[in-house]
Amino acid sequence: MYKQIASNKRKSYLLMFLFFVVLVGISWVYSQYFGTDSSYSMIIFAVILATSMNLVSFYAGDSIALNIAGAKQLNKEKNPYVYRIVENISITAGLPLPKIYIISDPAMNAFATGRDPKHASIALTTGLIEGLENEELEGVIAHELSHVKNYDIRLMMIVIVCVGVIALLADWMTRSFFWRNRDSNERGNNGVFLIIGLVLAILSPIFAKLIQLAISRKREFLADASGALLTRYPEGLARALEKISSQKKALRRANKATAHLYIANPFGSEKMANLFSTHPPVAARLAALRSM
């Protein structure tokens, strides 16, 4: 378990470093072609704009996600079983008790949200509560609380800001290359940077998106390993994932904007995993859990 956790943390940091390399690369080409002063001001503006746009979702995103899912806050007296499991695992993890929500839906799924452990919420579907055995439900809840403990939502906010900055710079570069009037001598002197810039402007947003999705998948593996460390029973989460992935029911209020939050694809049975999937293949997750 500790090896899995350490490995996934290293890979997450490596992917974040790749973000930095892409951002520095596109900024350098931008400055070489357009001039240092103007390019730096545009880079600073892109960082401020992308950060401002995402701070709103960072502070209000949990309420938005819960409303989209149709989640209702759990009544402790009516559902002491779920309350006690969440409470016990929170104590084990050393976390404050999160707000607990129930989604009235026969599909089996769950997600956690919130910017830090003090402002966290966990949502479980009625189908998940009814369809899983005690150890399996504990595994799912431990996985979701691990996302909270690992500050995954904060990391993903930083990642989204990076994607936004790269996308903005790439868009500005593309427009500038095609519309900026330069005399023939300038074009000749900057021909190499023009070609490099065009390639970066086209490919960097795609590359940034792939890094974002790769980080998302690594954080899922990390939450699996961290959750198994909390329960000391990886098989519980493994069996839960098998049941969840085998179902054909989609969440009634499944939404692409919040799909990455869920423990499994909310649109139904898993299709072939690809580069643009927010979740790793269930088979790979099962193999990792059962190797612990």
Describe this structure in words.
This protein has 10 helices and 4 strands; from the N terminus they run ααβαβββααααααα. With 292 residues, the protein is α+β, with helices and mostly antiparallel strands. A hairpin with a 5-residue loop joins strand 3 (110-114) and strand 4 (120-125).
Secondary-structure blueprint of this entry?
Layout: H1 2-34, H2 36-69, E1 71-73, H3 80-93, E2 99-103, E3 110-114, E4 120-125, H4 126-131, H5 134-149, H6 152-179, H7 184-189, H8 191-231, H9 234-246, H10 282-290
Parallel strand pairs: 2-4
Antiparallel strand pairs: 1-2, 3-4
Helix pairs in contact: 1-2, 1-6, 1-8, 2-6, 3-5, 5-8, 5-9, 6-8, 8-9, 9-10
Order of helix and strand elements from N to C terminus: HHEHEEEHHHHHHH
Extract low-pLDDT stretches.
181-189
Strand runs, count: 4
Q: CA-to-CA gap between the ends? A: 6 Å
| Helicity level | 55-70%
How can the largest sheet be summarized?
4 strands, mixed
Structural class: alpha+beta
Percentage of residues in strands? 5-15%
What is the residue-averaged pLDDT?
Answer: 82
User: Globular, elongated, flat, extended or rod-shaped: what is the shape?
Assistant: elongated
Number of helices: 10
Question: What strand line-up does the widest sheet have?
Answer: 1-2-4-3
Oligomer: single chain
Structural Rg: 22 Å
